[in-house]
UniProtKB/TrEMBL annotation:
Domain FAS1-like dehydratase as annotated: residue spans: 22-167
Pfam (any one): FAS1_DH_region
Name of the featured protein: FAS1-like dehydratase domain-containing protein
Domain of life: Bacteria
InterPro entries xrefs: FAS1-like_DH_region (IPR039569), HotDog_dom_sf (IPR029069)
Database matches in Gene3D superfamilies: Hotdog Thioesterase (3.10.129.10)
Source organism of the structure: Nocardioides dokdonensis FR1436
Length: 183
């Protein structure tokens, strides 16, 4: 396993994948669906008069909704899974890292942490792009799910003017499900 850990350093600081450009501009329909699903009744998300009463020019997007704008969709997910099943990988660093971990049995994943700093509000019509960097990879650790490593992705969300909107650290545990100790 030391050979595997020694390879982690080549990925740290690398651009994880090409920038993810939102398929859709921030829009009222998706905001309404999101706040309804979360039963969020803050009127500044759906009522222009309420938003203006707070000194804003327009509706705002719930800050925690930021990741939804750059989700790639189910078709893209299926393409990636097909490539993995065929033992292929894309050329970007994150794909190469996951393939390396796959080859060593670390095939399962769970999100373990997320920190977001919101720098400005999004409004309908804004366009979001996310830039991913592999910030760190922990040494292999024994966890309740099995042996694995924690990967921290730094995600910087920018708007159509390339102004930083949200700075995020997203941590996943990539683990070997067959290595879990039986209690």
């Amino acid at each position: 396993m030391h050979e595997l850990e020694a390879q982690f350093e080549q990925f740290v600081g690398e651009v994880a994948e090409p920038p993810r450009v939102a398929r859709y501009a921030v829009n009222e329909a998706m905001i309404r669906n999101w706040v309804e699903a979360h039963d969020d009744r803050n009127p500044v998300y759906v009522d222009r008069d309420a938003a203006r009463a707070t000194g804003r020019d327009d509706l705002i997007c719930p800050p925690a909704m930021i990741t939804t704008w750059v989700m790639q969709g189910y078709r893209r997910w299926r393409e990636v899974q097909q490539l993995r099943a065929e033992g292929q990988q894309e050329s970007h660093a994150y794909s190469r890292l996951l393939a390396l971990l796959d080859d060593h049995g670390f095939t399962s994943v769970v999100a373990t942490g997320q920190e977001q700093e919101y720098l400005r509000e999004l409004h309908p019509g804004d366009r979001v792009t996310c830039h991913f960097t592999i910030e760190s990879i922990s040494p292999l650790k024994r966890t309740g799910l099995g042996l694995g490593c924690f990967i921290t992705l730094r995600k910087r969300y920018v708007d159509q003017r390339d102004e930083l909107v949200v700075d995020e650290r997203f941590v996943i545990l990539r683990f070997n499900p067959g290595s879990k100790e039986i209690a």
